[in-house]
Amino acid sequence: MITVRTLDAHDAEQFKAVRLLAVDNSPTAIWPTRQEEMARSIAEIVGRIRSTRTQAVFGAFEVDVLVGITGIRREPLSQVSHKATIWGVFVNPSYRGRGIAQTLLAAATAHATDEWNTIQLMLCVNAESLSAKRLYASQGFHVFGVEPRAMKVEDRFYDEEHMFKTLV
């Protein structure tokens, strides 16, 4: 059985391990390189996953093993506080096809609406990642633009599609 909850300091080591798996599994979808992700200290990771009034990170657990993650953040400035950005959606490949990504997105969306009164969600996705694009479209996200050459992995550039979802 999979449970989803916000992460805290006790989850930092597992979060780092899942992020490294994400970089290895999807290097064109995750911004930091393996070396950059490895260089982050546990203290930095604790700060990155700590829930605040502008950020939250969710984990999907099978018993006590972290198998999926996603984050959500927003700006505290009043003129843009109506929207939040989903980032870092990843599910261990061994656990895919079980609705975990959808459950993580639902948890992040509920947090954004219930805790922050957010009315719009944003995200970016590698334009070549057809499965991720299908996932986000199935959850009501729509493309509103493409950033050419948004990411460079080794000697190749990748475009990112910018997507949004209105909640109200």
Automatic annotation (TrEMBL):
Presence of the UniProt keyword GTP-binding in the record: no
Pfam families documented for this protein: Acetyltransf_1
Membrane-spanning segments: none
Annotated signal sequence range: none
Keywords: Transferase
Domain of life: Bacteria
InterPro entries: Acyl_CoA_acyltransferase (IPR016181), GNAT_dom (IPR000182), NAT_camello-type (IPR050769)
GO MF annotations, alphabetized: N-acetyltransferase activity
Domain N-acetyltransferase: 2-168
Protein's recorded name: Protein N-acetyltransferase, RimJ/RimL family
Organism this protein belongs to: Paraburkholderia tropica
